[in-house]
Amino acid sequence: MVSMAESLERLSALAASPVVSTVSRAFAAAGFELALVGGPVRDAMLGREVTDLDFTTNASPDQILAVVKPVSDAQWDIGREFGTIGARVTAGGLTETVEITTYRADAYDGVTRKPVVAFGDNLEDDLRRRDFTVNAMALRVPDITLVDPYGGVEDLLSRTIRTPSTPQVSFGDDPLRMLRAARFTSQLGFVTDAATAEAMTDMADSIRIVSAERVQVELSKLLLTDAPRAGIELLVESGLASIVIPEIPALRLEIDEHHHHKDVYQHSLTVLEQAIDYEKTRDFNGAPDLTLRLAAILHDIGKPATRRLEPGGAVSFYHHDMVGSKLAKKRLTALRYDNDTVKDVARLIELHLRFFGYTEGAWTDSAVRRYVRDAGHLLERLHILTRADVTTRNRRKADRLGFAYDDLEARIAELREQEEMEAVRPDLDGNAIQRVLGIPPGREVGEAYKWLLELRLDEGPLGSDEAERRLLAWWTERNSPA
C-alpha cells in the first residue's frame, strides 16, 4: 500500500532534483506556470524510477523555446505542432532530456484517433483530457503543489485504473486508451475498475480505427512489462485481443469431454512467464527481450488449425510448429513489426519443437551442430523458449526434460569449444573451391560449398588438405559418366 506521507516526500525530492529545479526556476523567472505531469508524478509517488521528465505550461511553444535555451545545451521542436518542445539539460552533474508541452484542450473527431490540436489556458482542463486518473495528476514547481482534480491519489492508493471522465467519453476520444488500460494493469500491478472494464468490452470494436503501428507499440509495451499476464488476460476477456491479435484468444480450445489436453491458452501464458524468469536468471541481454516474449506467447498459435481428435481420447497437433510460424509471420507483419523481428519470431516458433527429438534418443554430433546452425543468432533465445515450454505438473517428466536440455547445452558448449561452432563454415571458401576445381564463379561453386558445409556438419573440421581431397573425389564422381 502506498503511504501518502512517503509519496509527498518523494514528490518533494523530485521537485528539488537538479534538472527539475533548474527548469522550474527558469519558467518562474519568466512569469510562466510549470508543472510536472503524468508519468513522473505517478512513478515518484509509487517509489518507481522516474525515467521521463514531462512538463506542462501555459507558455506557448515559442515562449517555451525562449525559456529553455539559456538553461539547456540542445533543443528540438519536432513536436511543435502539438505544443511540445524538447531540451537536454545538465545540472548538478546530471544530464536529462525534458519535454515541455503547452496546456492542451484537444477535441477528437470520433472517426480517427488523431486529435484536433487546441492549446488550453489552465492546468485543470489539460488534466481532464488525459487517459487515466493516475496519469492526470500534476506537481506545480517550483512551489511544490500537487494538483489532483480527478481523484488520482485515491486510485493510486487503491491501485485502480480509472478514467478522469466517463470511460465512454475517454475511449470515444481515443480508443487506444483501452490498450493502455491493459498495459498499465500489468505495468503497475493495478486493477481496472468495473466501469472501465465494461466500457472496454462494449467499445472494443472501435479499436479498428487505430493504426496498426500504434496498436503494435502498445502491445510491445505490454509484453515488455515484468508481468504481462494480467494485461493480456484483460485484452482477451474484453474482446480487444480478438480484433488486434486474434491468434491469442483462439488458443482457448474447446475441451471435448472424451479428449483431454492441457489448456493451450493458459499454457502459453505460463510459457511467457517462465521465459521472463529465464531472461533474468540467465542474464540474457540485460533487458526485456521483445522477440523472445512474442515467440513465447505465440509459439502454439498453430494448434487450433492442426488439432485432431484421435481414437482413444488423444489429441494431436501435427506440424503446429510450421503452421504457427506462418501465422505469426502474417500477424506480426500486419501489425507493422520490423522485418528482423518478424523473421526471428517466426524462426523461433518453427524451431521450438526440435529439442523434443533429443529426448527420444541421443543426437549425433552432426545433429547437435545442425541444431546450432539452424538456430544461428537465436540460439540463446531458443534455449530459453524450449525450457520455458515445459509446463507439465508431472515433476518426474519435467526433471527428465530439464536434465536432457542440460545435457544438450553441455554438448553444445563442448563442441563450441572444440570447433568454434558460432561460425560453422566449410573448410574451403568459394575462392579455394574455384582454385581446387578449376572452375569460374557460378552455380557449381555454390553447390560445392553447400556439399562441403554438410560434410563439415557431419564430421566436424577436416582441415584444408583433407577437404580438398574429399572435394575432388566428390567432383570426379559427380561429373563421371553414368
From TrEMBL:
SMART domains: HDc. SUPFAM superfamilies: Nucleotidyltransferase, Poly A polymerase C-terminal region-like. It comes from the Bacteria. It is an enzyme of class 2 (transferase). GO terms for biological process: RNA repair; tRNA processing. It holds the Pfam family HD. This is CCA tRNA nucleotidyltransferase. It comes from Mycetocola zhadangensis.
